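Hi V.,

You were right to ask for the full record rather than a summary. Here it is.
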Amino acid sequence: MEGGKPIFHRMYVCFAALKKGFIQGCRPVVGLDGCHIKGPHPGQLLCAIGIDANNGMYPIAYAIVEIENRCTWTWFLEILVNDLRIDNGLSWVFMSDKHKGLLRAVEDLVPSVEHKHCVCVRHLYNNFKKGHNGMALKQILWEAARATTIPGFKAHMLGWKLKMEVQ
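Predicted structure:
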């Protein structure tokens, strides 16, 4: 309550069927991300995504919070770690980019989890396109990012190298 008026604070959602499916059939890998909610009710959407047996994305949980910071990530992760029954993080991997407060929240709550940092391909492309105009880089970069094997990735990167030599 704020001045006698109810104010929305936070909301966590983890459907029982998704939680059970993740625990029973997915890899111990959790992707963590956040994004802005725009419009008349702004805030942040925090989410946890798993990887299923077919290398597909598997939704685990999400939360709507007032702002993205260490406090809100800690709140989200405390509930998530409890839901997924992560007693010790030795067999778990968390993947994220370097969101505000997320690094410290993971260190505080599950210090033994392996925490890997990813870079969004779109952001990577935006950094590269300043020096390389045209769609060639974008196409090759996305093909390399989607490669599911090391030989496939190397083939796409070789294509990029050859294309650069021609220019």
